[in-house]
Amino acid sequence: MKKLTGMIVLAGFCGGMAEIIWVAIYSAMTPIGAMEVARQITASVFPAMTDASAAAPVGIAIHLLLSLLLAGVFTVAVWLPFARKLRLAPALLVAVAALSGVWAINFFVVLPLLNPAFVDLMPYGITLISKMLFGIAMGWGLAYADGSRKVETPTCTRMAAA
Fold it and tell me: CB count, 10 Å around CB of 64?
């Protein structure tokens, strides 16, 4: 159980941080501020907090908690029974496909109901790439933590250990 928890935490951290870094890079090159993205995450979950001074940090915390939840579901439902048996590249493709499905459900079903402003905040392509990067980072973290194959230490693992 301890190993499973560690796998999920590492996978969630890697995936969540990959998205944060991607949004930060995108935000640095466009008028969309990364803190506005974080604020809109809060608005999606706690609409009454949208204009609170803590909305952006709360949004980051929500994002990371959801990253852990998503990594947990993926680990138990897909990684352990199926994807861990694949070579690294196909395993990462499975993770990217799964996260692309999550993106589609989020942007075409869930977010239009919860927070339509979030859907229009960034272009679909940018948000899809964000989820795909989450999948790659999560899959890499799982492959590393699982120990089922030799995987070079991912940067997010070194960051988490520091």
Answer: 17
Separation CA 30–CA 111 (nearest Å)? 22
State the Cα torsion 107-112-116-122 to the nearest 10°.
10
C-alpha dist (Å) from residue 59 to 50, 130, 158: 10, 16, 25
d(CA 155, CA 152): 9
* Distance, CA of 105 to CA of 18 (rounded, Å): 20
Single pTM value for the model: 0.88
CB burial readout 94-119, b (16+ within 10 A) else e: bbbebbeebbeebbeeebeeebeebb
**E-assigned strands of the chain?**
none
For the segment 109-151, what is each residue's pLDDT rounded down to a tens digit? Answer: 999 999 999 999 999 999 999 999 999 999 999 999 887 655 5
Q: Are 12 and 151 in contact (CB under 8 A)?
A: no
Q: At a CB cut-off of 8 Å and minimum separation 6, what does 62 contact?
A: 41, 42, 45
pLDDT (tens digit per residue) in 16-34: 999 999 999 999 999 999 9
